[in-house]
Amino acid sequence: MEIRTSEAEWEFADMDPLIVELLRGLPACADPDDEVSRKRIFSTPTAGGDPQADSEWREEVEPEMREFFQTHVDVVAADVAAIRQNGEAFTLNIPAANGRAWIHTLNQARLALGARHGVTDDDTAGRRRHRGPKAFAIMQIDFYGMLLSLLLSRTEL
């Protein structure tokens, strides 16, 4: 994969099919569609220490956060839907204006994947060996983390 940046956009060129599938799967990974990811992404301010404050937060803040996060996921979904194929290589262009949406979606996907698969610091530090879905989730978390780092280094927040 070749990464080119300018003030107007990021271009990810010469991507292979695995990278394309990881990118196309990003919106679904970021979707807090299960209880464990919802709890991780929309954790309450007191984590149960003050049930009334947590309840108010769920009623007053969480709906707006959900909508805000969903708009970012929608931006990313539109960007990945526009991936172009030329022979066996694929290209993705991300407008610089979409940088924040990508940053938030990548971070949300990493949190949701980690929660769904019970990923710990030991897992991401490589101190344990895994197979199957958890191993794939760890690889996704690492890949999304690399992209997140790149975008963070080139996006004004």
What would you say this structure looks like, in words?
It is a single chain. This protein is an alpha+beta fold. The protein has one domain. Helices cover 61% and strands 13% of the residues. It has seven helices and four strands; from the N terminus they run E-E-H-H-H-H-E-E-H-H-H. The protein has a four-stranded antiparallel sheet with strand order 1-2-4-3. Helix 1 (17-30) runs antiparallel to helix 4, helix 2 crosses helix 5 (99-117) and helix 4 (62-81) packs across helix 5. The longest helix is centred in the C-terminal third of the chain and has 22 residues, at 132-153. It is globular. The protein starts with a strand and ends with a helix. The model has no long low-confidence stretch (mean pLDDT 92).
| Helix content, binned percent | 55-70%
Overall radius of gyration: 17 Å
Question: What is the SS-derived class?
Answer: alpha+beta
Largest sheet: 4 strands, antiparallel
Q: How many H/I helical runs?
A: 7
| Average pLDDT, all residues | 92
Order of helices and strands: EEHHHHEEHHH
- State the strand order across the main sheet: 1-2-4-3
Please provide the count of β strands. Answer: 4
Brief summary of the model shown:
With 157 residues, the chain is of the alpha+beta class.
Write the layout of secondary structure elements.
Layout: E1 2-5, E2 9-15, H1 17-30, H2 35-41, H3 51-60, H4 62-81, E3 84-86, E4 89-95, H5 99-117, H6 121-124, H7 132-153
Helix pairs in contact: 1-4, 1-5, 2-5, 4-5, 5-7
